[in-house]
Amino acid sequence: MEIKAYYENGNLKEEGQILGYDKIGLWHYYDENGILINTINHTKN
């Protein structure tokens, strides 16, 4: 399932996939101005 979270100002905060309660695959994280600040590949152990 794809998940997107937003800051109160409406800008995207993070986006990625989940499986159950676990983040999986590439997740993109943004600052409050909507600028990409990090990408993390989450793997399920």
Unreliable stretches, pLDDT < 50, 5 or more residues? none
Question: Strand-and-helix sequence, N→C?
Answer: EEEE
How much is the average pLDDT? 96
- Tally of individual helices: 0
What would the principal axes of the Cα set say about the shape? flat
Helix content: under 10%
How much of the polypeptide forms β-strand, as a percent range? over 45%
Largest sheet: 4 strands, antiparallel
Radius of gyration: 11 Å
Question: How many domains comprise the coordinates?
Answer: 1
- Structural class label: mainly beta
**Terminus-to-terminus distance:** 18 Å
List the defining traits of the structure above.
single chain; 45 residues; mainly beta; four-stranded antiparallel sheet; 0% helix
Written description of the protein model:
With 45 residues, the chain is mainly β. It has one domain. It is 0% helix and 64% strand. A four-stranded antiparallel beta sheet has the order 1-2-3-4, with no helix packed on it. A hairpin with a 2-residue loop joins strand 2 and strand 3 (22-30). The protein starts with a strand and ends with a strand.
At a glance:
0% of the residues lie in helices and 64% in strands. It is built from no helices and four strands. Strands 1-2-3-4 form a four-stranded antiparallel sheet, with no helix packed on it.
Give the secondary structure arrangement, pairings included.
Blueprint: E1 2-6, E2 12-19, E3 22-30, E4 36-42
Antiparallel strand pairs: 1-2, 2-3, 3-4
